[in-house]
Amino acid sequence: MIPGGQVENFDIPLEETCRREVKEELGINIKIIRPLRTIITRRPQAEDKLVVLVHYLAERIGEIKPGPETIEWAWHDINNLPADCAPNVYEIIKDLK
């Protein structure tokens, strides 16, 4: 799973938004190692809206304890991802190989 969310305060660094979202969704802290690819795409339901997806490689600190927003999560082998992953997941994994 790649946690995601929205920027709530544009006055703080994106790395802090990433940390907040991971904490909310997975109940863990992270140490950001480095930025990965940024992807700009359009929302399927609103072609006039752009979405900026910012990805980071991070180290997990602690054991995962999903928050109330998380319906399901699982570990996956990057060479055998589920067919229903979002397109950006495949792009990021390809960059990491």
TrEMBL record:
This chain belongs to which protein, by name? Answer: Nudix hydrolase domain-containing protein
* InterPro entries found in the cross-reference section: NUDIX_hydrolase-like_dom_sf (IPR015797), NUDIX_hydrolase_dom (IPR000086)
Gene3D superfamilies per UniProt: Nucleoside Triphosphate Pyrophosphohydrolase
Domain Nudix hydrolase per the UniProt entry, residue ranges:
1-97
